[in-house]
């Protein structure tokens, strides 16, 4: 018979009795070493980009990156992602914003 604690180095904590959705998301994010919320940001960026493509690719790229940057700042304040991850999201968004701002049509 296999013991449930012999499966691996994972924390098999039961999160079904969590009080609210925030506690559940925090437990899932901690269980996945903070990659869950990074995945949420990537999927959110992709959905935003596809929904804004009607305005043009450059505008959609800039707008979706800006909205994702705002979400990433919110996630850093909640402790869901690291500051390094935030920098990898905000710096390209700033360059895209500057390229749109200073482009010559």
Describe this structure in words.
The protein is mainly α. The protein has one domain. The chain is 65% helix and 0% strand. Helix 2 packs antiparallel against helix 3 and helix 3 packs antiparallel against helix 4. The mean pLDDT is 83.
Helix and strand arrangement:
Blueprint: H1 21-31, H2 36-51, H3 57-78, H4 83-101
Helix pairs in contact: 2-3, 3-4
Summary of the model, kept short:
Helix content is 65%, strand content 0%. It contains four helices and no strands. Helix 2 (36-51) packs antiparallel against helix 3 (57-78) and helix 3 packs antiparallel against helix 4.
Task: Please name the defining characteristics of this protein.
mainly alpha, 4 helices, 105 residues
SSE succession: HHHH
Structural class determined from secondary elements: mainly alpha
What is Rg?
A: 18 Å
What proportion of the residues form beta strands (DSSP E)? under 5%
In total, the number of strands is 0
- Total domains: 1
The separation of the N and C termini measures: 70 Å
State the helical fraction: 55-70%
- Overall geometry comes to elongated
Question: What is the number of helices?
Answer: 4
Residue runs with pLDDT of under 50 for 5 or more positions: none
Average predicted confidence as pLDDT: 83
Let me know the largest β-sheet: none
């Amino acid at each position: 018979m296999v013991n449930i604690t012999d499966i691996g180095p994972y924390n098999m904590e039961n999160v079904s009795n969590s009080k609210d959705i925030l506690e559940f998301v925090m437990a899932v994010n901690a269980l996945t070493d903070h990659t869950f919320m990074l995945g949420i940001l990537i999927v959110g960026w992709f959905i935003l980009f596809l929904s804004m493509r009607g305005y043009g690719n450059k505008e959609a790229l800039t707008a979706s990156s800006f909205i994702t940057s705002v979400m990433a700042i919110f996630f850093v304040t909640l402790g869901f992602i690291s500051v390094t991850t935030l920098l990898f999201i905000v710096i390209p968004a700033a360059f895209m914003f500057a390229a749109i701002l200073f482009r010559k049509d």
